[in-house]
Amino acid sequence: MKAQDALRRAVPLLRDAGIEDGARDARVLLAHALGIGHDRLTLKLQDEMTEPQAALYDAALVARIARQPVAQITGRRLFWGLSFRVTRDVLDPRPETETLVVEALKVPFLKVLDLGTGTGCILLSCLKGMPMARGLGTDISDAALQVAVGNTRDLGLEARARFRKSDWFGQVTGAFDLIVSNPPYIAAEEMPALAPEVRDWEPHLALTPGGDGLDAYRTIARGAGARLLPGGRLLVEIGPTQGQAVAALFEAEGFAAIRILPDMDGRDRVVAAVKPGAADRCGCA
Ligand SMILES: C[S@@+](CC[C@H](N)C(=O)[O-])C[C@H]1O[C@@H](n2cnc3c(N)ncnc32)[C@H](O)[C@@H]1O
Question: Which of 56, 109, 162, 238 could join 178 via S-S bond, C-beta 3.0 to 4.6 A?
Answer without folding.
Answer: 109
